[in-house]
Design goal:
Distance between the termini: 48 Å
Structural class: alpha/beta
Order of helices and strands: EHEHEHEEHEEEHEHEHHHEEEEHHEEH
Number of helices: 12
Largest sheet: 8 strands, mixed
Strand order of the largest sheet: 1-10-9-2-3-5-4-6
Number of strands: 16
Shape: globular
Bound molecules: S-adenosylmethionine
Helix content: 25-40%
Strand content: 15-25%
Length: 397
Amino acid sequence: MTIVTPMGRDTKLKDKNTATTKTGPRKKGSASKGAGVKTLDLKDGGVILQGECLKIMASLPDASVDMVFADPPYNLQLSAELLRPNNQSRVDGVKDDWDQFESFRAYDKFTTAWLGEARRLLKPDGSLWVIGSYHNIFRVGATLQDLGFWILNDVIWRKTNPMPNFRGRRFTNAHETLIWCARDKDSRYQFNYEAMKNLNDDLQMRSDWLLPLCTGPERLKKDGKKAHPTQKPESLLHRAILASTGLGDVVLDPFFGSGTTGAVAKKLGRQYVGIERDPEYIALAHQRLAHVSQFAEDEMLTTPAKRSEPRIPFGWLVERGIVKPGATLTDHRGRHQARVRADGTLISADFKGSIHQVGAHVQKAPACNGWQFWHKEEKGQRVVLDVYRQKLRAELH
Ligand SMILES: C[S@@+](CC[C@H](N)C(=O)[O-])C[C@H]1O[C@@H](n2cnc3c(N)ncnc32)[C@H](O)[C@@H]1O
């Protein structure tokens, strides 16, 4: 299987620049052999394949993807039209054919089949995310355990703006559940602990994620209506992909819909394989992906591994007068500027934060290593902050 990354690298380079936790002894591939093996051409960073996911997955090679993100049918079993009691307007529920199953048994059979294929396609150290609601997530959870997946976390996506319960007969359904699991109990799965901690203002990332539904300009529209009924927010995918993959990794989504997984994977310098049976959604996803580009250079997308050297807070440079409050820092080309505050934070326009936060903010990037981004002018030359950090480290030895 040939996989060429958008950066022209072999995917085996994964983990090189990421702070990763790998646990347990590595297990050699235990998945069964795939049916007709097909070569994936990911030269452009990704591919969308049209058709039934079971059939298409069966044609892909064993152990060829690093992560699966799946947003499968919910099996909502909505029959009657749901109307808002105040004005009788129609509630936009999911009543599409793809969500209809004749019984729980039929749903379980389908779930067992696609999860089995997903497990075969995952590399031994790969992991799978699946999202669902109370209608299906318990069935999916039991099935994936039966198949040998190893649950790592269940994550609650708490919606900041859930749809109200119109009939007032139940609690507002304000969350969905994601299950994150490794292919096997002893998989050395990837977890970018540092990246998650950085994303969460230096606190361990918790398993309850407070994120809004996909609304506003992010929501794709066709003739003024939602182009896809269950388009997920990019913020959710950003967190899942950043947590459990490295640059250039291959992310498979067997229920691609409007292509949210592909859009975020592309932005973060990962590759994607999307499978979707509806040609209209395929067209929508193609259109969407054509307008997406990678956020920034590779350096901005990785979290350097925590070194064994002592941690040097930027504030120490300020306390020692190496960088003075009020001094202006710039990036290496002088395009972005920020001023140093007495407490070791930076301010750029009206945005304040650590050297990392302000660096990420000015570039509109998800993360930034401020030590390598910001420069101080010294004798007409721009000197990267990391040089001063190294000097302080040397003093401590
Ligand atoms: C819940 S939606 C996924 C939405 C997606 N996460 C997004 O953000 O747009 C499920 C999608 O899977 C597709 N689908 C359902 N069953 C399928 C199957 N057996 N094979 C391929 N696609 C399928 C549906 O057409 C639908 O677009």
